[in-house]
Design a protein that fits this description.
The protein has strands spanning 5-9, 13-15, 20-26, 33-42, 52-59, 64-68, 71-72, 84-91, 95-104, 109-113, 120-122, 127-133, 139-148. The strands form 2 sheets. Strands 1, 2, 4, 7, 10, 11 and 13 form a 7-stranded antiparallel sheet that branches. It is mainly β. It is globular and about 50 Å long. It has no helices and 13 strands.
Length: 149
């Protein structure tokens, strides 16, 4: 690992009642990625909205999404980031094992920190996605991931 810290941020993403991958991180061949922190913020309007199931999971295909550019935390680092990412699936990737899951009220935001030695690991050449699992209503969400490669 080169120890390059970087951030991925989707901005606001609209979702409907279908399962939707909001972000997918792709580790380059022979370069694993550690996810230290994920922030998820919903922009719900009504207190009576039904909670949304959020999953972080392995994904075995790319699906169809828009490109998402990783941004170095320290812009003066000389090394080139090898990790790529995408966001806002229009065709869902193939799901693998669910690594983390929780339920969010659609008016909340949370930051999930994975302690040192307990970070989420994306092995080289594989993909990890964050998706909403069949929400009960439409809405808007933003996701930020703090990572190291």
């Amino acid at each position: 690992m080169a120890g390059l810290a970087f951030t991925l941020s989707t901005g606001s993403v609209a979702y409907t009642t279908a399962t939707k991958t909001i972000m997918q991180i792709v580790a380059a061949s022979n370069h694993r990625v550690l996810i230290n922190e994920v922030s998820i913020g919903f922009l719900g309007v009504l207190a009576t909205e039904v909670p949304v199931h959020v999953q972080i999971l392995a994904q075995t295909t790319a699906g169809t999404m828009s490109s998402l550019t990783p941004v170095k935390t320290n812009s003066s680092d000389d090394e080139t980031l090898q990790t790529t990412a995408q966001h806002t699936a229009t065709a869902e990737p193939t799901a693998g094992n669910v690594i983390w899951a929780d339920v969010f009220h659609p008016q909340t935001a949370r930051r999930i920190t994975f302690n040192p030695g307990r970070e989420l690991v994306i092995p080289g050449g594989t993909r990890l996605g964050l998706r909403l699992l069949s929400p009960a209503q439409s809405g808007t969400v933003s996701v930020t991931a703090m990572c190291v490669e």
